[in-house]
């Protein structure tokens, strides 16, 4: 896949502003899609690079957006 495509998305959540958060499992990242946009921004992990360092994710599967948008 490329960094613009989702690869095995697992979970989707929305915040109070209409932003969509997608757990992109096989790309090892979390993406935020601003309200009204079809372009995702990687907010956690890195596209296609799995790992256990603080800046990497390994097959994430869930996300939770709290009431204070964090």
Overview of this structure, please?
The protein has a 4-stranded antiparallel beta sheet with strand order 1-2-3-4, with no helix packed on it. The chain is mostly beta strands and 70 residues long. Helices cover 0% and strands 30% of the residues. It is built from no helices and 4 strands. The protein has a domain at 9-45. InterPro entries: 6-blade_b-propeller_TolB-like (IPR011042).
Main sheet record: 4 strands, antiparallel
- In percent, how helical is the residue content? under 10%
Rg for CA atoms: 12 Å
End-to-end separation in angstroms reads 29 Å
Continuous helix count: 0
Number of DSSP strands? 4
Q: Walk across the major sheet and give the strand order.
A: 1-2-3-4
Oligomer: single chain
Task: State which percent range the strand residues make up.
Answer: 25-35%
Question: From N to C, what is the helix and strand string?
Answer: EEEE
Overall pLDDT metric: 89
Structural class by secondary-structure content: mainly beta
The rough form would be described as globular
Spans where pLDDT lies below 50 across 5 or more residues: none
Care to give the gist of this entry?
With 70 residues, this protein is mostly beta strands.
Q: Which features does this protein show?
A:
single chain; 70 residues; mainly beta; four-stranded antiparallel sheet; 6-blade_b-propeller_TolB-like
Secondary-structure blueprint:
Layout: E1 9-14, E2 20-24, E3 29-33, E4 41-45
Antiparallel strand pairs: 1-2, 2-3, 3-4
